[in-house]
Design goal:
2 domains; alpha+beta; Arc Repressor Mutant, subunit A; two-stranded antiparallel ribbon; single chain
Length: 229
């Protein structure tokens, strides 16, 4: 069972062990709170920017009505995943998931958007929109339409999230060696107060209070803060 709420999502384990639930989460402007009830066998996939668009048959804004959304996958995808078992070695589980994804892969050819996002990432989110217009050869209105259609984000929000994610990664990977001023300057914030203000606007906490509580999951830049009753 999945119950979407303004504050986040409640997920309750299903009695049917053969049932799969496919969820996709977009991190845009704030942290997301998830309550989980029961025992789950969970496999997480971290997509590169625009990666999800290679596996859906509609634009992302047609599918996503909330920050966390349940997907409806086709039967061939589900049949391949039916081979999964929590008792299989991780390598075999990965192979099954990859096979399922390859069965639904499709081209995503929005070259303008791909170029714009690449430039944003390379600039750590500091590039100006008028520079993106010049580099892509399309106007601001067209760029904004593409961002909203395929990332469900504005250009500015996307740039801010790139900057925030990079600073979070850097802070957590180097927390024994750096202070907040180092993190701010390395990630191109104006100063420490700019970094703290931006961090708090997304997480509702300061870096000093939240960073020690965050755990990195797996080998990707995926972080959780676990709360226990």
């Amino acid at each position: 069972m999945i119950n979407h709420q303004n504050l986040g999502t409640k997920i309750t384990a299903c009695d049917d062990k053969n049932k799969f639930t496919f969820l996709y989460t977009v991190n845009l402007k704030e942290k997301y709170y998830v309550e989980m009830y029961g025992t789950f066998h969970k496999i997480g996939i971290v997509f590169y920017p625009l990666g999800i668009n290679h596996f859906i048959d509609r634009s992302l804004n047609e599918i996503m009505v909330s920050q966390m959304q349940e997907f409806s996958m086709n039967e061939s995808f589900k049949n391949i995943l039916s081979r999964l078992s929590e008792h299989l070695p991780a390598e075999q589980q990965l192979e099954i998931v990859e096979t399922a994804l390859l069965s639904v892969i499709r081209p995503f050819e929005e070259k303008v958007l791909q170029k714009a996002i690449k430039k944003i990432i390379l600039s750590n989110g500091t590039i100006k929109t008028n520079e993106l217009e010049q580099l892509t050869g399309v106007n601001r209105k067209t760029l904004l339409r593409l961002f909203k259609k395929h990332t469900i984000s504005t250009i500015e929000d996307y740039k801010k999230m790139v900057m925030f994610r990079n600073s979070l990664n850097y802070a957590l990977k180097n927390k024994e060696l750096t202070n907040l001023t180092d993190v701010a300057l390395y990630n191109m914030y104006y100063d420490q107060s700019h970094f703290i203000k931006h961090f708090k606007s997304i997480t509702n906490e300061t870096p000093t209070t939240l960073l020690p509580k965050i755990k990195r999951i797996g080998n990707e830049d995926l972080y959780w803060h676990f709360l226990k009753d």
